[in-house]
Amino acid sequence: MTLLLAFGVEIAPAMGIVAGLGLVLGGVAGVRAGKLLTFKRYKQIVAPAFLVHGLAYVAFSVMPGIWGSIAFITMSRAAIGLCSVMNRTMLLLHVPDSLRGRVFTTVDTMLNAVMMVSMGAAAVASTRYSPREIGVVAGFLSASTAVFWIWADARGLLVEPAKDWKEPDREFTEPVTPA
């Protein structure tokens, strides 16, 4: 995202707004899809979403004009927003209540660690390569997630864990946990 904002300053000050709009659109799509989401359907959506995210980021990185850049960064962020909401939905459905805090904290910690390494690598690369070249590499690396996902699914490595979720027995009229 740092590369996006640095790159965005070069081509349009409003690029961060458009990227945020894409995340919102993807999040809304994820919420709508989540209502009908089965594990099988989830596995079918993730790979194309990562492919769209990565390839749209590549296209954004090489776009000569502002309107193409806006379209592709919105598409990239929407795909990542969709994945984010679907991943959280799957975690909420499958992780036992007693472990959710640990699992979500670990996921967020790993996400932040990978982003820091990625930003550090982009900073080092920026001493030698242009933002466009770095963006193309970042896009292809992001799209490669789809390849690994498809491979793991084809090998049967993506099996659904047992669900640890059920509808509440009653409607809650007071806080579930004390304040």
Topology of this structure?
Elements: H1 2-11, H2 15-34, H3 39-62, H4 66-94, H5 100-125, H6 131-154
Helix pairs in contact: 1-6, 2-4, 3-4, 3-6
Radius of gyration, in Å, reads 19 Å
Number of domains: 1
Instruction: Please state roughly what percent of the residues sit in beta strands, choosing from under 5%, 5-15%, 15-25%, 25-35%, 35-45% or over 45%.
Output: under 5%
Mean pLDDT: 84
Shape: globular
What is the helix fraction of residues, given as a range?
A: over 70%
Main β-sheet, in a few words? none
User: Distance between termini?
Assistant: 36 Å
**Order of SSEs:** HHHHHH
Give the helix tally: 6
- Total beta strand runs: 0
Query: Which structural class best describes the helix and strand composition?
Result: mainly alpha
- Uncertain spans: none
